[in-house]
Fold:
Amino acid sequence: MQKKMHSSKMKKTSNIGKFQCGKYKLDLSKRTYIMGVLNVTPDSFSDGGNYFDQDKAIEYALEMVKQGADIIDIGAESTRPGSKQVADDEQILRIGHVVKILAKKLKVPISIDTSSSIVAKYCLELGASIINDVFALRKDEKLAQVIAGHKAGVILMHMDKTPLDMQINPKYKDIVGEIKTFFKQAKQRAIKSGIKQQSIMLDPGIGFGKTTEHNLKIINKLACFKKLGCGVLIGTSRKSFIGNVLNLSIPERDFGTAASIAVSIVNGANIVRVHNVRQMKQVSVLTDAIIKQGL
Structure:
């Protein structure tokens, strides 16, 4: 028990300070931050089609902030297993108006879930301040420079292959070690392009080219990634590994999500990306309060 509390203590007292994203500075030493998911898509795995209507999307984003979201992550392209890419102009058509309105109404950072420099530039100029890239700057060679030029934050996610084929027999000799090596290379790409280390967040990519066992091990060993000197984001919300362990459908996975989030926070997560903001805010606040007792 003492050893576990020591690891949670390290979570809040490490040398990782603030996450700089545009005009925002998130103090990672104080608490865990909630990223609310807004999929403006017809085919995302959890809520595809629910907020494809732009007015509904705007209304839902505002509601998530009221429920406790610290960041709103807007995506116009599903990255669920087997999904195909969406053209830049279609992504902009889907989310451009949403970003424009929310940038005026919200007082929290807006993150854009895209790997396109064109979409990123468009949204950053409207007022977004984070780019959430599932390809970790490997797909579009211009994206890193766009992010650096706007002094935006970037989330570098680990993924093997692409969303279209990532779940076809994923194999690793050392899942944690291989992700750490991947992150070192991704971080180097970002810094070489002018992105500051304090503007980099690392996401091990739960469900992206991993088996259930891989995902469980990543959460168990999450503290290892904090040694790379950047904040860690994790997105477990309603994902298939929860359904596989508990034998539950997507709408039934919120309790499993809560368990995975609590353990992730204890093991070092700074930001948790979730669909059910109200309930997961409660989980994060209580978990943070317990951790503070060990400081």
Notes: The chain has one domain: 2-292. The chain has a mean pLDDT of 91. The two ends are 14 Å apart (CA to CA). Residues 2-292 form a domain with the TIM Barrel fold (CATH 3.20.20.20).
